[in-house]
Design brief:
Length: about 250
């Protein structure tokens, strides 16, 4: 029987019995963890209010087998709020739908429980902090998060040099299968011809150039989002359920 302590983001919850919940979290040191929180659905439980999606929390786990992914789910015995991002996110539809897609993406990119993924964890914390602050359009924050999650997962797209031969950009064609923009010689069936402005926007989102991203026109934002969605779906092999509810700028 072992106690573990870690900080994490609550990804989702599900009911268990009459008063309990199973909490899924992405933690800093233990990756994705599922744990049982006893009595959190009771109306007087202050503990339960801290374990809602989007919450950044410090959590203590009690594992019977000495391992968070051992036999049986660990118990969540103590929690403290680090940052209640959900307060700002759930009050705005565009932020809420974008944030839900971010949580689902983080869960999909950490599909092995107990396997540390510090980069994805830090990316999610930073993404939710930015989303909650409201300094940038929710759709832009989401697309930036999706592109960076792909990069952390080893699928960084190219928006300038040819993804196949490395020919210096700008290159005009875009292929999700090839890994981004491609030159005329490397063009493959299914390639599309996006606008230069949309590719510039996506490159800015990937590198964190918010001045360029915030100045983008709505039509280029929509075009860029379509490319991000197609690229993400290709590498995840199936789409995100939450993306269908995201508002397009």
């Amino acid at each position: 029987m072992t106690l573990f302590r870690d900080d994490g983001i609550v990804l989702r919850t599900q009911k268990l019995g009459e008063a309990d919940r199973i909490i899924s979290l992405l933690t800093r040191h233990h990756g994705r963890v599922r744990a049982v929180a006893r009595g959190v659905r009771r109306t007087k439980s202050k503990f339960g209010a801290r374990l809602e999606p989007f919450s950044h929390v410090d959590v203590q786990f009690f594992a019977r087998g000495g391992d968070l992914v051992g036999r049986g789910l660990p118990l969540c015995t103590q929690t403290e709020t680090i940052a209640p991002y959900g307060r700002s996110i759930v009050s705005d539809y565009s932020r809420y739908t974008a944030g839900t897609a971010m949580l689902e993406t983080a869960e999909r990119f950490t599909d092995h429980e107990g396997e540390p993924n510090v980069q994805q964890y830090l990316l999610l914390v930073g993404g939710l902090r930015t989303l909650a602050a409201g300094d940038h359009a929710a759709g832009l924050v989401l697309d930036a998060f999706l592109l960076r999650s792909l990069a952390v997962g080893g699928y960084a797209p190219s928006f300038d040099d040819c993804a196949r031969c490395g020919l210096p950009g700008p290159n005009r064609f875009f292929s999700v299968a090839a890994g981004g923009v491609v030159c005329a010689d490397c063009r493959v069936p299914g390639s599309v011809l996006p606008s230069h402005e949309a590719l510039t926007l996506l490159g800015a989102l990937l590198t964190g150039d918010w001045a360029t991203a915030d100045a983008a026109e709505a039509r280029h934002v929509r075009e860029g989002s379509g490319l991000v969605s197609a690229y993400l779906h290709w590498h995840l092999e199936r789409g995100l359920r939450s993306l269908r509810f995201v508002e397009k700028g």
